[in-house]
Amino acid sequence: MSLFSIIDFLAIFAGALGGAAETARDERERYDIVGVVGLGLVAALGGGVTRDLLLGRGAPLAFTDVRYLLFALAGAFCGLLLHHEFNRIARALLFIDAAALGLFAVAGSTRAVDAGLTTVPALLLGAITAAGGGAIRDVIAGRRPSIFLPGQPYVLVALFASAVFLGLRAGGFSAQWCTIAGCLTGFIFRMLAVKLNYSTRAVSRIPKATSASDG
Questions:
Q1: DSSP, res 204
Q2: pTM as predicted
């Protein structure tokens, strides 16, 4: 497997582990094993499946390459077994998640461009691939999707990673360098947001701009 494939499968594993562990620690709903594993799979694979269904080019990749399902299942069961130790492994998962964010965004945009879509749809499908799984998991679990709430930027970083990839591709750079640049963009900006503890703000709480006529 290539380095990108390894990161891709590790990302699936990490997404399933994190999704399952978070679900298992939900004291309000108290999910059983089906709920924990099922929501872990949704968190890991939901974005890619949604992208492939929107593209309408055959069965989703997660169902045609069994490795995606195997890594997702392994991650979900690890999350089920290790949810009490989640805080101890969260830092390692953060690095994988940061690498996966850019990779998923670039992968989504690549599949969109290969399907003949233009830049803006490819940009959106990159973000859907990166963040869609977590949003679908939250909806199924009866929660407001966290990607739409104030917090550390995730969708914005995915959009930026896809934009860098698509911009360099339009500029005539090789696919390899475009992919590397997009993935590094996602990783660096995700880690910077964590390091600087940067969070988005609720629009309703942004102060109104004061005009000259207001004195």
A1: G
A2: 0.83
